[in-house]
Amino acid sequence: MPPVADPILAALYGAGGGIGALTAGDGAGAIAALRRASAPGEETRALARLARDHGLGRAMERFRAAAAATSDPARALRDPRILEVLLPAMGMPDAVGQGGLAARALMADPSDPKGLLMRLSDKRWREAAATLDLRRRGMDALRDPAVQARLEEGLRRQRWHADLDSSHPGLSDALHFRRRAASVNSAYEILGDPVLRRVVTGALGLPMEIAIQPVETQARAITSRLQVKTLADPRVAGQLAERYLLARAGEAGPAGLAGAPSPLVALFA
């Protein structure tokens, strides 16, 4: 009798070779990388290494010079030297080119129930405005040495995440999700954070086109597949993050076969 193949090993290494082996292997590598990056002390070591990065040091020098050169926070928030540090450090590298929005959103009142920040679907702007408190403190907030130290650390963290993504797409999303998952209380919080949205909808297999649906419909699509309260369990959050990485590995399969699902995804179904 021929030996019976282990279905997990077959999924991981693609029994018989071919496309399944390639996409599954990438997924297994991404999961291993996530577990390494999540290990105690790994982030601290990575940030310590990046403290010696001359490029990041020069970016902070430009930031400090720009912050010292103007007394107008709205003007500062349109300065590329400010934005190239501030937004990545606040976890919003995708918003660096949105100087106009940054100037309006970060000077808005996060407590105004009818204000701009409440109307924006991306709730990261509200969190950033509340954290920086530019509306009340003005340029003192950007010149504060304690704030600058936190921004410098955030900038190093963002570079670390970019380095991780260069080898395994979506790895920084998965790390962010694992860090934030326990504090999420509703599907609407997931939908209001672009990273949480990508991870959850990707892991659950929801199509990108769901974004054109009313937010209530999107929330129901999530809650019909996931009990949000279970994200407080690190094991559940970790499994969802890994399933997202497997889906991303499937999307990034061999040329001409993008979107082919990794056979590993079935193991998490």
UniProtKB/TrEMBL annotation:
Family matches, as InterPro entries: AGR-C-984p-like_sf (IPR023157), DUF1217 (IPR010626)
Pfam families xref list: DUF1217
Gene3D superfamilies, per the entry: AGR C 984p-like (1.10.3700.10)
Cited SUPFAM superfamilies: AGR C 984p-like
Identification of the protein by name: Uncharacterized protein
Annotated organism of origin: Caldovatus sediminis
